Amino acid sequence: MRQVRFRDPAGAERTGTYDDGTVSFGDSTYDAEEVDILAPTEPTKIVCVGLNYADHAEEEGMEIPDRPLLFLKPPNAVSSHGSTVELPAGKEKLEWEAELGVVVDRQCKDVDAEEAMDVVRGYTCVDDLSNRDDQRVEQNWIRGKAFDGAAPMGPVVATPDEVPEDASVELRVNGETKQSSSREEFIFSVPELIEEITTYMTLEAGDVIITGTPAGVGPLSDGDTVEIEIEGVGTLEHDVSIPDA
């Protein structure tokens, strides 16, 4: 099942199911083009994993980490399918990063890897938009990773049974494929990530873990359209704008 949050033609916010371009809620069914697709969850935080694809580590010439590299994005970073994200002005290097997002189903702490999937609601697509100019000169990456709209996500949350263990992950910019990989390149699995993260912090229902990006990260330009397609989830699409400095 793929769950979707949306605003119906009357302006009411609903949670329904998404199937073959249609959105259903109760006895009502809409074409997806008739409604506004909202971000699939309202997290209190987004826990991000750096360098979790073997192909990306090789691309960057970096050693495989011995434990997950973690950082945070706050709720203001959330943006939705179909949105236009205004990126920071005056930067030389603003980049895309296709990521599988794990949506947490309930409050949890100190979760063993063997039980980790019990706290997973499902998976979504996320773009970990990054401002490399500032990321490279600060340790906490607030300017680099936490600006408004820096985590487009959606369009749905697909239950784990919908998403294969070797699901493909692809990113296109203006229709041209830039990233193409699969979950098989993960260094740390979803259960391993949940165990590590919940050792240190409590996750709340609706929080999102984004699981790293594959090889092929690159620069964005004003007016670009980004599509992230993950097998079993669907396709997140958003545009970007870059104002004059």
Automatic annotation (TrEMBL):
Q: Where is this region: Disordered?
A: 1-20
Keywords noted in UniProt? Hydrolase, Metal-binding
GO MF terms listed in the record are: hydrolase activity; isomerase activity; metal ion binding
Q: Which domain of life is it from?
A: Archaea
In terms of InterPro entries, this protein maps to: Fumarylacetoacetase-like_C (IPR011234), Fumarylacetoacetase_C_sf (IPR036663)
Q: Where is the Fumarylacetoacetase-like C-terminal domain?
A: 45-240
Which one GO biological process term can you cite for this protein? carboxylic acid metabolic process
Transmembrane residue ranges: none
Q: Is the Nuclease keyword given for this protein?
A: no
What are the Basic and acidic residues biased-composition ranges?
1-11
Pfam families reported for this sequence = FAA_hydrolase
The protein depicted here goes by the name Fumarylacetoacetate hydrolase family protein
Q: What is the lineage of its organism?
A: Archaea, Methanobacteriati, Methanobacteriota, Stenosarchaea group, Halobacteria
